[in-house]
């Protein structure tokens, strides 16, 4: 985490990208246990294939957690004032997700509005979001 200040950021500045490890079956099983979301579409290949899908896929909230990591790698968690996402596409197993963002507005009260996104190794956006952080 860097020592980011309101005075030091400008509209258009990028956040440092955060690349996650490849999403594995272990990743999905661990996230299911941590989140309590044991939906079989995320962990049971037989269930998924019976439903006509080729394989299990990541929880949408896993992608949101990755975006949360992007924010807290840039500023302390206590600086986050707003954080929302829109799920754009399914994140397939074995995807390598990179989270990026940029400053879109500076507001009164040392608030900075951000656009953030999570995309796979092919550049396909999986989640798009917004956040507001308060900087010193």
Percent helix: 25-40%
Please give the radius of gyration in angstroms: 16 Å
Mean pLDDT: 96
Reading side by side through the largest sheet, how are the strands ordered?
A: 1-3-4-5-2
| Uncertain stretches | none
Task: Kindly describe this structure.
With 136 residues, the protein is an alpha+beta fold. It has 4 helices and 5 strands. The protein has helices spanning 25-35, 40-43, 45-50, 60-74, and strands at 18-19, 80-87, 98-107, 111-119, 125-134. It has a 5-stranded antiparallel β-sheet with strand order 1-3-4-5-2, with helices on one face. The chain is elongated, with a radius of gyration of 16 Å. The mean pLDDT is 96.
Describe the structure concisely for a colleague.
With 136 residues, this protein is an alpha+beta fold.
Features:
alpha+beta; 5 strands; five-stranded antiparallel beta sheet; 136 residues
SSE blueprint:
Blueprint: E1 18-19, H1 25-35, H2 40-43, H3 45-50, H4 60-74, E2 80-87, E3 98-107, E4 111-119, E5 125-134
Antiparallel strand pairs: 1-3, 2-5, 3-4, 4-5
């Amino acid at each position: 985490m860097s020592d980011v200040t309101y005075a030091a950021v400008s509209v258009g500045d990028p956040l440092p990208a955060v690349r996650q490890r490849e999403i594995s079956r272990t990743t999905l099983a661990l996230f299911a246990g941590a989140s309590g979301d044991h939906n079989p579409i995320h962990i049971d290949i037989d269930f998924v294939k019976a439903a006509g899908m080729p394989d299990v896929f990541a929880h949408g909230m896993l992608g949101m957690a990755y975006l949360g990591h992007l924010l807290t790698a840039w500023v302390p968690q206590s600086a986050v004032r707003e954080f929302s996402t829109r799920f754009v596409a399914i994140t397939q197993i074995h995807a390598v997700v990179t989270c990026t963002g940029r400053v879109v507005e500076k507001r009164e009260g040392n608030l900075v509005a951000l656009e953030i996104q999570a995309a796979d190794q092919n550049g396909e956006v999986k989640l798009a979001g917004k956040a507001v952080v308060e900087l010193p």
